[in-house]
Specification:
355 residues, mainly alpha, 2 strands, 14 helices, two-stranded antiparallel sheet
Amino acid sequence: MSAPAPATPSGPANGPAADERLITRSPLKKLLGRPELGAVVGAVAVFLFFTVAAESFLQLSSLTTVLYAASTLGIMAVPVALLMIGGEFDLSTGVAVTSSALVSSMFSYQMTANVWVGVGVSLLLTLAIGLFNGVMLTRTKLPSFIITLGTFLMLTGLNLGLTKLISGTVSTKSIADMEGFGSARAVFASTLSVSGVHIKITVLWWIALVAVATWILLRTRYGNWIFAAGGDADAARAVGVPVRATKIGLYLGVALGAWISGQHLLFSFDVVQSGEGVGNELIYIIAAVIGGCLITGGYGSAIGSAIGALIFGMTSKGIVYAEWNPDWFKFFLGAMLLLATLLNHWVRKRAEETA
């Protein structure tokens, strides 16, 4: 029987042990390791598909419409992605957007106040919803699915019940003639003209949120805390990461996104239907997942969520430009999203094999 080979000692005579943090990686491996790479590939595939399927898809007016659709989704997809990286979900986001719009509208109308007062009150109450979710999660230790599902049901009932109680109908009263409406619309729902191209201001809100979120994730200590809390909360807590404060902060970020989206909803259409928003929470999560966020937490990027929102915008509007039978709308929409997700998964798997 052969003797086992002796262990090679580490030390000055044999050189220091290799530190994996000092190992250089090729640019290709770095690229393959990016969480949003699969979403980029999926976005290119969807873009090329509708370029062929719809003649009008490449028109500037069509592309700006796609950007608008993507931005209204992306404003919420960004904070939802950060929350998922932190290991949690929020099923109340869709109706929270509607709640934010309803509070602004009804407070301004009933109090005959400048609409900016209603906007401010809405911000406080929407942040309170996020704080409630975060505190309940960290105090009770219940799954975020249960906590936010409860919030979803409560907000759905409150939106409908309070709107009918105060307004007498299921929609709010018009506030278009109230003081401050014009300036508020300029901030939340205006259209900018750049070289003859009309771009909705939500696109700028979206880009700003992506930039801020990316900076937080990659350049700040809080970003490290988000990844750590989502990867393994107990291990993160053991090395001093304030997991509780981190997760509450993430829910406040989601609430801020809901407030921005709610104000856009109100100042775009002047009135708000109390039943809107149900089901949108799943779309926000889908955009984040397509963008590379893992459902288990600890992995993803804000840029990926933006690309996921862009894929959804191209799909939803591309179907219209292709003039397909609207009865098949949900089928084609689901098929394109599934294709993009599978492509994202395949690219990530290849990245892991070459790492």
